[in-house]
UniProtKB/TrEMBL annotation:
Domain Enoyl reductase (ER): 62-394
Keyword Membrane: no
Lineage of the species this protein comes from: Eukaryota, Fungi, Dikarya, Basidiomycota, Agaricomycotina
InterPro entries listed in its UniProt record: ADH-like_C, ADH-like_N, ADH_Zn_CS, CAD-like, D-isomer_DH_CS1, ER, GroES-like_sf, NAD(P)-bd_dom_sf
Keywords in alphabetical order: Metal-binding, Oxidoreductase, Zinc
Protein name: GroES-like protein
Length: 399
């Protein structure tokens, strides 16, 4: 048998069980073709299948069914990860309920992923098999634009979301309520040994989403930071801002959370059910970070802006359903103190590495509830009803 035919026979029989970087124990010393190329020796090879809890019927948005799906083609820069944990994010609820538009079905959501590397592509330099890693809300970008080259890949116009995006070949990106995922190494994060997987999971989106604007806008010693909305993201914002050395003001209408908020480290808790909550804080805050994903006309946005010091910044990271908008705003809400308004979208790999180091060095642990993955429907329902303190993480249980 010629070496070419022998090589083809080996690859077609082994399929995707081995990568070209992993030597086969019985193989002759001949170069193997990349495993995303298929050969035939008279018998068709079966495509690799992953499993996941998927939305199949939008009318049953939290009744997810286990399906098999074909992952993206494995490429030289890719890392394949066996998923052990996945956080449950508000983005998952918005997507499953079709609040952000029609989803591509069947769809596996989840973008707060932690697992173990099981395969690496030929061009991967950062990771090896056995490494513990994480993946957040982004799994790809063009890597060529100005944003990508300036470490703003999270703002790339051709960003690929971890789920509900479509690759050029038509494959739909499936998320982390699943057995495995394939991701470009640029969007794969090493998890420090000191951080447990169940804690690291929700850092991949919730943690990073609030860390990025806090870092960008200078949260630290001498700065006064306000946090609107103390849920999954808001509780992380308190933890990070306090660890950065800022004076933290937490804004909530929920009296049942006050003691928790104090334990998280907030220096001040402001009850927004009092209509005059803002008056004693006029021109006090340097940064006001909103994690709320519901606004409506009744939100007194002008009152919040009045609490900002000169050139203070109001930054929103919460994204409501498509039919929800920001409250009415007048120029007089912005001009008197010269305040600035803006938003922030997840974060970059550089920022995520900084965040993980902060969590490691300060021994920061999020407040989470852990469930088996089969109970993700319960977690989603409770999250939608604001009945979680303060983030759900589901653990792998798919056979």
């Amino acid at each position: 048998m010629t070496s070419t035919l022998l090589r083809a026979y080996i690859i077609s029989c082994v399929g995707d069980l081995w990568s070209s970087k992993t030597p086969l124990p019985f193989a002759p010393k001949i170069p193997l073709a990349p495993t995303n190329h298929r050969f035939s020796c008279g018998m068709a090879t079966k495509a690799v299948q992953f499993k996941g809890y998927a939305l199949t019927d939008p009318s049953k948005w939290n009744d997810l069914q286990v399906i098999e799906f074909t992952p993206k083609v494995f490429e030289p820069e890719d890392v394949e990860i066996a998923i052990t944990h996945c956080g449950v994010c508000g983005s998952d609820v918005h997507t499953l309920t079709q609040g952000w538009g029609e989803s591509k079905l069947p769809l596996v959501v989840g973008h707060e992923i932690v697992g173990t590397v099981t395969r690496v592509g030929d061009k991967v330099t950062e990771f090896k098999i056995g490494d513990r890693v994480g993946v957040g809300a982004q799994r790809g970008s063009c890597l060529q634009c100005r944003e990508c080259k300036d470490d703003y890949e999270n703002y790339c116009p051709r960003s690929i979301n971890t789920y509900n995006s479509q690759y050029p070949d038509g494959v739909v990106a499936q998320g982390g309520y699943s057995t495995a995922i394939r991701v470009h190494e640029r969007f794969t994060l090493p998890i420090p040994d000191e951080i447990e997987s169940r804690h690291a999971a929700s850092m991949m989106c919730a943690g990073l989403t609030v860390y990025s604007p806090l870092k960008t806008h200078g949260a630290g010693p001498g700065k006064k930071v306000g946090i609107m909305g103390i849920g999954g993201l808001g509780h992380y914002a308190i933890l990070w801002a306090k660890a950065m050395g800022a004076e933290v003001y937490a804004f909530t209408h929920d009296e049942s959370k006050v003691e928790d908020i104090k334990k998280m480290g907030a220096d001040h808790v402001v009850n927004t059910s009092d209509k005059e909550f803002h008056k004693d804080l006029a021109r006090t805050l340097d940064i006001l970070l909103s994690t709320r994903d519901v606004f409506g006309d009744s939100t007194p946005l002008g009152d919040y802006l009045s609490m900002l010091y000169v050139h203070g910044r109001f930054v929103t990271v919460g994204i409501p359903d498509a039919d929800d908008t920001l409250p009415p705003l007048h120029a007089f809400d912005l001009v008197p103190n010269g305040c600035l308004m803006g938003g922030s979208k997840i974060g970059s790999k550089k920022e995520c590495l900084e965040m993980l180091e902060l969590a490691r060095s300060k021994s920061i642990k999020p407040w989470i509830e852990e469930l088996p993955m089969r109970e993700v429907g319960k977690a989603l329902r409770n999250l939608k009803n604001n009945a979680v303190r303060y983030r759900y993480v589901v653990k792998q249980d798919i056979a």
